[in-house]
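Pipeline run #58 for the internal structure catalog. This entry was flagged by the ingest filter as a single-chain record with no existing model, so it goes straight to prediction. Upstream metadata was stripped on purpose; only the residue string is passed forward. Reviewer on rotation: M.T. Logging verbosity set to normal.
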Amino acid sequence: MLNYEVEPSLLNPYVPRGTSLDSFNGRTYISLVGFRFCRTRLLGRFPVPFHANFDEVNLRFYVRRKAGSDDRRGVVFIAEVVPRRAIATTARLVYGENYRYSLMKHRIETEGLSKTAAYQWQVDGRWCKISAQTVGPPKHPGRGSLEQFITEHYWGSSGQRSGGCLEYHVSHVPWQVCAAATAGFEGDASSLYGHQLGTVVQRRPDCAFVADGSPVIVFRGDRVQ
């Protein structure tokens, strides 16, 4: 997970109605994330042949919304890239997310306590790459840390053309994380993320780490006006 501090004004056009930007110590972040879906089931119940295991790379930021006494901290995806057209189409229809199809590949290697992870995807026929090499064992993020802020958002929000947003709950145990000795992005994804955000991800990230992941349940969403 590569994390970059950005000016809030860059994200205002993407903030779904009814939510507001979430911040950490007064700072606003986007994250470029690569990971593997494994043993995936549609709506948690229906396996899809030949589409259970696949890569995804997404660019996200963080919002919050008051729902009664509940302060819901959520994620908004600017773009999500997957290697199967059917997956992209289904995700757009079910969750209203901005999924794109692209050729993709990954490499994950472990040597002792060190892990190297890299994900690649094509934009305009050219390869982009996100990579990280960890140092030390995984551990739960410190309370009040940026790593905890990034990993512990348990809602998803997507803006709708009709107004309002689609909000859905995401359930998983708190993830352990490994610090990254080296990490970064290579390539040009401006046509995918827009010129300004595309330029942001090309610089050195302000924070980078690798999360160990876990089983995740994504519940059907509800429309919020």
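catalog note: Residues 2-212 form a domain with the Acetoacetate decarboxylase-like fold (CATH 2.40.400.10).
catalog note: The helical segments are 85-95, 146-151, 190-193, 195-200.
status: ready for reviewer M.T.
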